[in-house]
Batch of 4 targets.
Target 1
Amino acid sequence: MQRRKFLVGMGSLAAGGAATIGTGAFSNFQGNRDANFSIAADNNAFLGLDAPSSLENNEHASIGGDNELKIHFNSTSSTGGTGLNPDSETWFDQVFRVTNQGTQPIDFMVDDDDLSQSENIVFYVDGSFLPDSGYNTGDLYAIEGYPGTAEGAGREDDDQHANASDYWVGSARPQVGSGDSIPVGIYVDTTGENTVGSWDSGTVTIKASENLNQP
């Protein structure tokens, strides 16, 4: 089950005015107002999470029976394979998509610290999908952790397609405008692992906020 953290704010309405006589003060108030809340599947929620067929590797993610996004690199994937290659490094571009279906821009990140193989799994985005200046098309940016602490930030290289040992150029904190989407890729390193079978499983936390400067 995927865990997602959301902030729900209940605003207040107030009207004030100056009167020639009296202050308009009151000691107590009680009133009934309508409030409606709906739970939507991940792909239809305000923070949309889905894996449409337009993504390169969408077969490794899907919306499950509990209406939550699932990531799977095992026999559940709708491919002919049943798992990752042993003793290897693999990049899966565009596995799932994050869509801002709210009304204001948001920052987002992926926290995979609950996975036992967290240091060998990195969530990333291509620079071509980042709206801010300074990001380059074809360069990969890790989106784990807060700025300056993303995994892989020290494994710098110009372009992961140049040769087999290339990595992402650094870290990023993607901002998604209202109505916009960013596809997320996943890098997996199984170097030194040769035993066939289950390698890791657990929970990944996707965090979104107006400002992710604060943990």
Target 2
Amino acid sequence: MTRNQEVKQRREALGISQKKLAEEVSERAKQPFSQQALGKFEKGDSSGSKFLVYILETLEELELAVGLQTSKDVSPGPRSMGDIPIISWIQAGDLCETIDNFHPGDAEHFVPFRPRGAGPRTFALWVRGKSNFPKFQEGEVVLVDPDKDADPGQFVIAKKGLEEATLKQLIFEDGQYMLKAYNPDWPQQYIMMDESWHICGVVIGKAEMFI
């Protein structure tokens, strides 16, 4: 794969336009870089190569902002196959009790990329409330893999009985599993877990910018 093709693939995986990326590159480079110049570069024109370092730095920054480490961690996919469905918290709780895949046709919104390594049942949720502020802010979108094993320190989606699922950090102290609110000012900082609690999935990233 050429650098030109790599830039196009990474931009499309992020779900951003040529205009948006060109604006970000111009700001970083402190000199004009047009949408037309980026379009030509993606098609193989080398005239924009002097901006390559700024393009790559900008792409990396945007990937980090949505939880992607490098270009090899993401691959674009067709809607309803490669994209990740954004589901409701009620649906997330239901997934705790079934091994069936969430059917993409049941979702109205999708995250337009899929991190490499994400399981086939990976789904996304809109963050609600401020219990995990500032780590996760209301309105952001978290990516959740229900097939990954949860380890202490990771953020998980958990559910107790018929209650709605919740996003918290999994903690293990003094032989006891707990759910911790990241926000130090949250009234109920810790929730003790017992056999009635179930882990619905592990948070593997967030995509708050380009939905």
Target 3
Amino acid sequence: MDASSTHGAPQPDSPLFHDGYPFDVATWLPPARDVAATPAQRANHQRYTRVGDPAADAVAAMVRRLPHGRWLFELAVEHGIDAVPDAPEELVAFFAEVDTEPFWHDRAQLDLACRVIARTGVIAGFTSLAMLSLMGGYQAWRIVKPLRNGDLDRMAARRIAETTAWLDDITTPGGLERFAAGTKSTLRIRLIHALVRAGMTRRPDWNDQWHHPLNESQVAGTLTAFWLGTLIGPQALGMQFTAREADAVAHLWRTVGRLLGISPNLLPTNSRDHARMLSMQGELEFGRPDQDSIHMARALATAIGPAVIGEGTDLISRTSRAAVTGFMAAYARKVLGQANADILGLDDSPTFQITVTAVATGIRALEYPRRLLPAVTRWQERHGHRTRTALTQRLIRLHHADRSYARHHGAPPTMPAGRNTAGQAPPVSAHPTTGGPGTTRAIQQVS
């Protein structure tokens, strides 16, 4: 496929970079020169653009090979590998890695990170997730290639709902324990990545310039995008975090990254590591946004208002949708930069940009007394968690979000009838599972 075709043509001379970063977030990050990668680090990073996730890719091949492969994976996710009868060696190897708790795993830090992220609530937290993590990620022209499919516009709202649900799972206290919702959903997403990877590599139109589909470098970059959305983005709306809180958030994403199969060589451990990853990803992925990136961005911008408010036709619904859409676009311009926002076709409303500045100023003013009153911090954590959970449930209900990810596999997530509570199973006649073109929507969970 010709890289200069409509879906793949780079925009000339795109003014993407701000002080060494692909987004206009340098105010809240170390100077790019202080985290610049060495030539050896860049060369090592480049190697991972040609690498997938060997352990998950082997499981994906097993899922495709065995009629009951998906059920075996689900059984291990839900009950552990010991519950799987005659477990295939690919599954044993995968869960041996998952079930080995690293020495650095720190539950106290994870609990603090969950409380910090909960404190960002809906205004700062959800806005940053949608318009920095997701919208910003669409500027990475290679990583959007597996997302291209005919129902992109229709699926945008559901993608927002499912991504929000996943974030709610992993940032709920205890959500990253082995059999908690966050861990289980992350493992399912990892398998989805592998199935999509397998499907993309079989496509005759896959261009080698796009590197290996959903390669390990891109997954690591996506992790940093979510770190940005949970720590850096809320600061653009006036929130403040201590160094201890920032370390805890980085630890949470390190834990999620391990579950996603990211190599220790690529897994950021702190804010400086994430800043360096962002800088390297900027050099590698963000220099050439194309029409696919623009299409993805416009689909998200169009969907965000209906995703939050719904499709009601009354005056209040219409006005609320317009307000959400305008505020989100104005925030995106603040954190991505005006030039990037212009390339992506985002609305440019001075009124909403003034509104974003006013909201940020108000939140910043309230943060000073909040830091002096621990009881207020605890209240904000509880309130933020409640409002975020309420939004998540509303999004799931409005857009029929699939928290089981079954529709991405072509197989139901339920166990075959007849398995007893000890995990023993009768002969399996589960639905066959494929990783064909229909799985291309799957990456929409964490991209």
Target 4
Amino acid sequence: MIHKLILTSLLGMVGQLTLAQSDLPTTRASTKNVDIRDGNHFKKGYWYIFPDRKPDFYYVEIPEKPHQVTFITDLDSISFDVKYRENYDFIVLLNGKDSCFTRISATYKNLDSYTRKRISPDPDTLSFILGDNDKIYLKGRINDSQLLDIQFDLGNGGTIIKKSSVEKVKMEFDETITLHNSDGTNQVPAASTNSLEIGNLVWDSVKIAVADNMTYREDLIVGNSLFKNKIIEIDYDQKILVIHDTLPHLNSSYSKHNIIRDGGTIPFIEGSLTFQGKTQKGWMMFDTGAYTSILNSSDVSTTNKMLGELKKMIGIDNKAFIPKLSIGSYEFSGFNYVAQKMDGNGLHLILGNDLLKRFNFILDNRNGHIYLKPNSLTPDSYRNPEYVVVRVVASLLFLLLLVGILVYWKRRKKVKY
């Protein structure tokens, strides 16, 4: 009798589940690749359908901002107006037979929350040093270690310790993760649970991975993953980082800009790049961890940079070889950059801190905006570490050009005689 009651209950539960699933909104697809538009961010081919996951979770990029999320298949699309702390279930019917249960979640995924050693109604303020490489440096500890040098890098998606600094910290590496950085894509060791202390703030369960592409200046790199539900203020004039729960009062000297947050963490700001009469609009990474801006080599090549220097050296107008950036009403030219191959269509651009340091800014992670205010560093000349190299190469090109002209001239004279 007991077995019959259990079986009856289970069948009832299965029936209710099947009924609930049959009532879900449905969209159709014949391929497993899906595009997503998350608010302002269109992500081509971002989603891959896994029928075995029931459900398969998609976490929105900015959970606290009400906005629309759309899944776009090769046959159909489905949209939801999402609100914070809500979930939205639907089915992708693959090839007319496989029901792929999907959930859009307007919540934070793996949120690293901190506690405060001293409770105060005021926001927490951290002093920083602006390094000779234009990067932001804090002081802190991991697992009660000695004081460590910490780089604050908004272009970084997690928390990274330098390989040679591991010996300074007591850490238990208990997993391996895939890390994407300037060294490429590698499998690296990681410690899943660590305490991190910076000023008055303490995180007790931070995952930390190991990397070997860092300089002597830092032991650790942290980024926006620690502050995804906060409002961050960077003031380069006072050299302070302030963490707010609510947006502070802003005067008219600040300009407001939309952001997207790639992977729910890394901020991108909207802007445009103009080069040789072609203007591209799109999203540019707001990367305080890059000392110089990085442009797509398919848009602006190193050869273009050298030709621009060569024209400048011989007194020819080189404006056509100087890329121009626009962010809202702000325009930039003559900034330093490196050219690097980037995959994909459209504008791909990383804004480095040689440019970004010229603005005090407030990054509103909760509402998807960033506020910029020109500061005392705005008039500074741009760094150009490659200047000597570019000038040398440009000089060699110039000499080769002169030699070529002389050889050509001598040959013409011989032909005349």
